[in-house]
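Appendix C reproduces, verbatim, an entry submitted by the partner laboratory led by Prof. M.T., so that reviewers can inspect both the input and the predicted structure.
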Amino acid sequence: MILSVSRRTDIPAFYFDWFVKRVQKGYLMVKNPMNPKQIHKVPINPEVIDTIVFWTKNPKPALNKLDYMKSYSYYFQYTLNPYDENFEKNVPNLEERLKTFKSLAETIGKERVVWRYDPIIFTENLGVDYHITSFSMLAEILRYYTDTVMVSFLDDYRKIRKNMENQDVREPNFQEVDTLIKALVEIAKNNKINILSCGEKKILTHQGLRPGSCIDPDRIERLLGKKISKRRDKNQRPNCECMESIDIGSYDCCLHQCTYCYANYRYEIIKEQYQKHDPDSPLLIGKVAKGDTIRDRNMESLKINNHQLSIFDD
């Protein structure tokens, strides 16, 4: 079983104490985003968890608590963009985030810290030259602290249009994409960083850029030192190459206030959700209520081609 912690919110930044408590308790609960009255109980122990994938823009609050993860295989997807508060309203400044990136890599090893230059945003002032300059500066610093960078362009999710309506965001044309990707590939190569795309079919034809997996079976196998089942996650976007996982997060509860985020819409709702967080609850947001249905994600094991395949009751 792979735990995704989490695409929906930044658990290392805002809820890591809760996650540590759930690790100590040996289980947590996750609401079905499409049916909040349906709750899954997910076991957490080294026997059933193959790897934990953390997603974050600020893992600093988790740095002094990583000893609680010593029984688990894990790695971080660390988003580090050059944007200011116009796009990332409540993210630490770039200097602090670079310092945290270095500290994380020095603590757990650079093979467990994947850099995300994501999303690539185009406006009147943010164009090809801006991204080449910014990416080059970051790559020269991070080359000693990561082995991989994931890149992708901003997707036009309907939910974020209102949040970005005053920011002059536009879609880059083919020539801009072509010029930028070729430059990023060359910069990454010069800094000995492997560059991969995230969910980007339209740019996969560019020489030197290959499709990548954020929840990456190859990286997981390297960290585990053994083979695992490699089932693609059919619940993700059509061009997503990630393997199957269980995401334990909730929508509309991340306090970073990134205007481009599809998982967190209105800050008024986010504040309400955050106030419902109880560090002692098995749920990230709120508590189990009357009328909720709880189902165990009980795992069975099958031997297929000498690999372990996880199967869950649904």
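Helices lie at 11-14, 16-25, 94-108, 128-142, 174-190, 217-224, 267-275. Additional entries are available on request from the coordinating office.
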